Amino acid sequence: MSEGARIDSWLWAARFFKTRSLAKQAIEGGKVQVDGAKAKPSKAVQPGDVLDIRKGDQRWTVVVEAVASKRGPARVAESLYRETEEGVAARQQSAEQKRLARMAAPVPDHKPSKKERRDLQRFRRNHEGEL
């Protein structure tokens, strides 16, 4: 299996994306880099390649350990790559920042009534450009 696999199918097999077409869109959108360079969906990945993957707010930096072009069980998918320590630290820091932001956000003590919802909608409509 040392010949490599297409990066879009590898990302799908490693379970970073739910479908191969989503992986392809991410690659074409510049969300996936191979060894620091933009890649095409047909680029072959080899063991030892470093991938930077962005998906929404999440970011992974992984080293390809094994090549697969077919999706298998999650345990097999986990063995296809090794996440770098810097990537793990960055993801943990991002998760901590999100957690702190959620804690700082105001939480209402009750669900708004129908009248309160209408008042809120009216206020937002009247003050659209100001917010």
Task: Tell me about this structure.
With 131 residues, the chain is α+β, with helices and mostly antiparallel strands. It is 41% helix and 19% strand. It is built from five helices and seven strands, in the order E-H-H-E-E-E-E-E-H-E-H-H.
Structure, briefly:
By secondary structure, this protein is of the alpha+beta class. Helices cover 41% and strands 19% of the residues.
Reconstruct the topology from this structure.
Blueprint: E1 5-6, H1 7-13, H2 20-28, E2 32-34, E3 37-38, E4 44-45, E5 50-55, E6 58-64, H3 74-78, E7 81-83, H4 85-104, H5 114-126
Antiparallel strand pairs: 1-4, 2-3, 2-5, 5-6, 6-7
What attributes characterize this protein structure?
131 residues; alpha+beta; 5-stranded antiparallel beta sheet; two-stranded antiparallel ribbon; 5 helices; 7 strands; 41% helix; elongated
Question: Would you list the SSEs in sequence order as H and E?
Answer: EHHEEEEEHEHH
Helix content: 40-55%
Which oligomeric state applies? single chain
Instruction: List the uncertain runs.
Output: none
- Strand order in the sheet with the most strands: 3-2-5-6-7
